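Q: Hi! New to this. If I give you a protein sequence and the SMILES for NAP, can you show me the bound structure?
A: Yes, paste them in.
Q: Okay, here:
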Amino acid sequence: MRVAVIGANGRVGQILCQLLKKSAKFEPLAVVRDQNQKNYFEQDLGIEASLTSIEESSVAEISDALKGCEAVVWTAGAGGKGIERIFTVDLDGAMKTIEACQKGQISRFVMVSAINAEKRDAWWSTALRNYYIAKRTADFALRCSGLEYTILQPGSLGSESGTGKLCQLDQIQSKKSDFYLIQREDLAQFIQLVLENPEITAQKTIPLANGDSNMQEILQQI
Ligand SMILES: NC(=O)c1ccc[n+]([C@@H]2O[C@H](COP(=O)([O-])OP(=O)(O)OC[C@H]3O[C@@H](n4cnc5c(N)ncnc54)[C@H](OP(=O)(O)O)[C@@H]3O)[C@@H](O)[C@H]2O)c1
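A: Thanks. Here is the predicted structure of the protein with NAP bound:
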């Protein structure tokens, strides 16, 4: 399966592209926004890359870039860099990518959202309000899109080694005190599992934090 990774140069995106490249089941397409990034993916990692800024491209251009892909993973983000980029990347960039999938008949879409996105009370009075408005709205659009979606809602992302373990879904709220921490390596590994298991994960919204259960167990709880 050819899988486009939007935000491939990001910290989750890079781990995911390399995992998909190693797997016999997938062929990643790294969607990046800088020629040096494209060179790095193609020359150093042997991963095909598309130079497509989601912010600057039209739906038709994004659709062209995604031609030949059967699934898309959204793991891009403005990184909280001001309200305008939250609008143009986290919100409209995600919406344009959803529209591009509809236009190009790519039915599978895995969205990296954020923990508690649908619970306004959890974030309305925090510094993350604008970011969360964008994430919540993009999730909402995806649920209404007719695509075969999975929305992953990780907590705070860490860059230490993966643990291979996640929190049981019915115990996740108890992780609030550590900001629902999850290592990026674990998130990337779970994205790969989601792509491998559409029959379990399609049309689902899944909160994620590290915990004590192996990932196969979590899949069975969905
Ligand atoms: N940080 C957290 O604690 C947290 C928590 C929950 C969810 N999330 C979500 O998790 C996802 C992955 O996070 P991360 O830590 O991997 O983020 P990251 O390292 O900041 O990577 C985000 C990537 O998005 C790319 N990007 C930005 N604008 C773009 C555009 N116009 N066109 C194409 N690509 C663009 C960036 O490109 P450049 O490399 O060129 O800058 C970067 O590679 C994001 O969706 C984020 O919102 C984060």
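A: Residues 7, 9-13, 33-34, 53-55, 75-79, 89, 93, 112, 114, 154, 156-157 surround NAP (CB under 6 Å). Let me know if you'd like me to explain how to read the tokens.
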